[in-house]
Design brief:
Strands 1, 2, 6, 7, 8, 9, 19 and 20 form an 8-stranded mixed sheet that branches. The model has no long low-confidence stretch (mean pLDDT 94). With 442 residues, the protein is α+β, with helices and mostly antiparallel strands. It is 33% helix and 27% strand. Among the domains are: 1-53 and 161-232 and 393-442, FAD/NAD(P)-binding domain, CATH 3.50.50; 235-250 and 262-271 and 284-385, no CATH class. The chain has helices spanning 14-26, 66-84, 104-118, 130-136, 138-141, 162-175, 221-229, 301-308, 312-323, 325-336, 342-351, 410-425, 431-439, and strands at 3-10, 32-35, 93-103, 126-128, 148-160, 179-182, 186-193, 196-203, 206-217, 236-242, 246-249, 255-258, 270-273, 280-284, 288-289, 364-365, 372-378, 383-385, 389-392, 397-401. It is globular. The termini are far apart. It has 13 helices and 20 strands.
């Protein structure tokens, strides 16, 4: 018998799993299914080794304005509250110190200015002198010739295992008895039949077909592929940015971020303890532009070319990016970081801004670590779209393309999506229950 669902979610990463939990917990939608092509939940970018492991709050990320930082912090606080209320909270969220450092007088002035601007909305952040930094991160101060200041906090829940978070969402959703999970089911086709959709998946046994009133694609870069195959999102192209990391032993106690170059659309290099690699500090990410939809999957080159949408608008967007000398140099350096031996020497110079005494011999390329961030290109504006991209068709379909900080804002995004879904399906969202869970004291 062909199964009928009210809501089908394709993708079990942190975006799709957050939505499944949100739908099962706070709506009266009764029949929900999650499908994933892999044999486990959160197998791709939500897996711990494929992302920054950071709960972005906007306080130490200088690419966020105050307005954006306030918005991101509110979203991140939802994740923090959820994680703390789980019985396995210690496997999901971790406390570390975190610092944003400014090296030299010019960057020091920027830190002071940012602190004054942010202190009212981020009162837990302190302005720290070199002596105070030394107590938290001695290797950041050791052998440093230039003056240094920082804004930061001694301890905050700021590191997340997003794979474990995804599994928690799925487990709690299944416990509601509203949700079915189908692993090793690869989406192949969608057809509009009457007032619902018919979806076909391939699996080990052949094919499976289900009907759904609403379908959400939460498959990262693939979401745009699926959108275009169904006639949506043709005004978008895709720039796939892969991030790699380097390891060093016990270099930092917590997270240390640096000031981002305003001309670059990608995050500056930072360092932090790796939550899955004991006694190792991880530095990165790099930003390597690759024609792939999934890191380390070479069979996705053709799929990338299909979704790239190469035309004059994409070429103009690329031209705008490459027009900036800083961006050209940045792209070139990041390709060189992947080259054995030479890459380590070049990357060491980058990391020395964080730890002056670090040498190339202290670094080891983190093979197999690092994911892929899908950066959307708006063809109409002929420029990159920074942040999450969201295609809501108002026809019972949503496509979520979620680069950073999509994982940190997963519950906020899920809340927005489920309210749209409830409206379409004539279902109800229990706002009182939602507010009760997320505002009650822990």
């Amino acid at each position: 018998m062909q199964k009928q669902y009210d809501l089908v979610i394709i993708g079990s990463g942190v975006t799709g799993s957050a939505l499944a939990w949100m739908a099962s917990e706070y709506s009266n939608i009764k029949r929900i299914a999650i499908f994933d092509k892999y044999g486990c939940v959160a197998a791709v970018n939500s897996q711990a080794k494929f992302n920054s492991q950071t709960l972005h709050c906007g306080d130490i990320e200088t690419n966020y304005s105050l307005e954006k930082a306030i918005q991101v912090k509110k979203s991140a606080d939802l994740v923090k509250t959820y994680a703390q209320k789980q019985t396995n909270a210690d496997k999901i969220i971790y406390a570390h110190s975190k610092l944003l450092i400014g090296v030299g007088e010019q960057e020091g002035d920027k830190i002071n200015k940012r602190y004054q601007e942010f202190t009212q909305n981020f009162p837990y952040m302190e302005l720290l002198s070199a002596t105070q930094i030394d107590k938290l991160e001695p290797n950041v101060v050791k052998d440093r010739k230039q003056p240094i200041v920082a804004m930061g906090v001694e301890s905050d829940l700021c590191a997340v295992n997003f794979g474990n978070l995804s599994r928690s969402f799925v487990d709690n959703a299944i416990e509601s008895q509203k949700v079915d999970l189908y692993l090793q089911h690869k989406f192949t086709r969608l057809s509009h039949i009457d007032e619902s959709y018919q979806l076909t998946f391939t699996n080990a046994g052949g094919c499976a077909t289900v009907n759904a009133g609403f379908v959400v694609f939460a498959t990262g870069a693939y979401s745009l592929t699926h959108a275009k195959s169904l006639g949506y999102g043709h005004n978008y192209g895709l720039l796939a940015v892969a991030g790699s990391f380097y390891f060093s032993k016990n270099a930092l106690n917590g997270k240390v971020y640096t000031i981002q170059n305003d001309k670059l659309p990608f995050a500056a290099v930072h360092g932090d303890p790796d939550i899955n690699a004991p006694n190792r500090t991880r530095f990165g990410p790099t930003a390597l532009i690759l024609p792939q939809l999934e890191r380390y999957k070479h069979n996705t080159y053709l799929d990338y070319l299909k979704v790239l949408g190469l035309d004059k608008h994409i070429l103009i967007a690329f031209k705008k990016l490459l027009k900036e000398r800083d961006i050209r140099n940045y792209i070139g350096r990041n390709f060189m970081y992947e080259v054995p031996i030479l890459g380590r020497r070049l990357f060491a110079k980058e990391v020395q801004k964080i730890i002056p005494s670090l040498t190339p011999s202290n670094l080891k390329f983190a093979k197999g670590f690092g994911g892929l961030r899908p950066q959307v290109i708006d063809k109409d504006k002929e420029q990159l779209v920074l942040g999450e991209a969201h295609i809501h068709t108002k026809e019972g379909l949503i496509f979520n393309i979620t680069p950073s900080p999509g994982a940190s804002t997963c519950l906020h995004n899920a809340k927005q999506d489920i309210q749209k879904i409830c409206c379409y399906l004539n279902a109800d969202f229990n706002m009182d229950k939602f507010n009760d869970f997320f505002t009650n004291n822990l």
